[in-house]
Amino acid sequence: MNAPSAPSLSIEALRVLDGMPFDPDARSHFDVMSGGLQWTDEFPRVGSAEWPVVRRNWSYRFLIGYRASLTLGERRDELRPIWEQVVRGAPNWPGLRPERHGRRALGRLRAAFRIQDRCLTDLESELA
């Protein structure tokens, strides 16, 4: 059975991503739904006029998921088309910066997975 393909971003969403200004002080957090790190300068603020444009179909989560796979050295080829779409259509997006999937990001991502695993283990114990 073939894996479903990742949705694509609209031209309007690519324009929004391409216009996101890089913030050297941006902070990252772990997005559970995508399994990757997301920095505060990568997407419009929730509630902004641009947010629904990027959020549509939850496409951005596939983008974050693919970057996580790059970071981990375990490429998820089924998510690659959306990454390539952003590389071509939004080359200034801060999320493409090499440090966002480099060694330091790898350490943070692995730490996030360890915390997630502990939380799930604790939850399972509580529910048992």
User: How many beta-strand segments?
Assistant: 2
* Low-pLDDT sequence parts: none
Radius of gyration computed on alpha carbons? 15 Å
Determine the number of helices (DSSP H or I, runs of at least 4 residues).
5
- Amino- and carboxy-terminal Cα gap: 34 Å
Proportion of β residues?
5-15%
The total tally of domains equals: 1
State mean pLDDT (0 to 100 scale). 92
Structural class: mainly alpha
Helix-strand pattern: HEEHHHH
Helix content: 40-55%
| Sheet having the most strands | 2 strands, antiparallel
**Order of strands across the widest beta sheet?**
1-2
Shape: globular
Set down the secondary structure blueprint.
Elements: H1 11-18, E1 28-31, E2 36-39, H2 51-55, H3 59-72, H4 80-89, H5 103-127
Antiparallel strand pairs: 1-2
Helix pairs in contact: 3-4
List keywords for this structure.
128 residues; mainly alpha; two-stranded antiparallel sheet
